[in-house]
Amino acid sequence: MRRHAAAAVTRTTLYSRAQNTDNKTLATNESTGDHMNTKGWNVSTALCVLAMAAIPTAPARAQMAEVKEKPPMYSYVATWSIPRARWPEMEKAAAADQKVLDKAMASGTLIGYGDDTNLIHSPEGPTHANWWSATSMAGALNVLDEIYKAGNGATPVLGSATKHADAMLVSRFYNAHAGSWKGAYSHGSSYKLKPDAPDDAVEMLSKSAMVPLLEKLLADGAIVQYEIDVEAIHSEAPGTFWVWYVSPTAEGIDKVNAALRESLRKNPLTGPAFGSMVDYTAHRDYLSRTNATFK
After folding, report:
1. Which has the higher per-residue pLDDT, 264 or 18?
2. N or C: which end of the chain has fewer CB within 10 A?
3. What does pTM read for this prediction?
């Protein structure tokens, strides 16, 4: 799942790519997905590889100048491992939060919210997640208070969870189309930087290739939202970042993969270039069905 994996940071090592709080860092979740080695690249890896290739070039420097960090977006994420027999109840739990979340959106406190249902399960991984995003940490926490005041933080189905974790993430590279989507698809990839990677590695990767490509996909309608996250509250050691996008259809995922392959074809790179900064063994992918609203 999209942020779903992010909250698991507090109990495993989800996506952890940080440098410092302002520098974006997360923890990598080793409980879901298959890891990649230096020989086993996929299109998710290609995105970051392309960024590595672009950094030294003149066009890349011009591109980096065009991409600017946005004001921080804080996302509160709660993940849950719910017994299969009670999965249908999670839809009711999400609906119960709707009034609080819609009110926060209308007031400008939130700029997005949603819930995820994991599609790629693992024995230890979460099955569901709910999340909301604000332009301040206070905004995200105030909505949490309202959720509890409404009595939605301790429902029977949430009480049945065998595991639960929360996370507070921050992003400075994100964008979305305004609107609501039901049954969309969220794809996430986590990458862990090596200890000797530059402090601004994630910023460089984001500005040089990831954001330009994601913006193109957003304009084409293949995706409706993206973000590059790190932990704002560090529950694990720094060193990881996540790249998330939401596609309105399953076909959109294929379009993203095709765009990544084409970019890699036009910008061929060898493994050592990307491998000099990223620890492949910590890479994970996440896929979920998502209901989301963005402003």
Report:
1. 264
2. C
3. 0.81
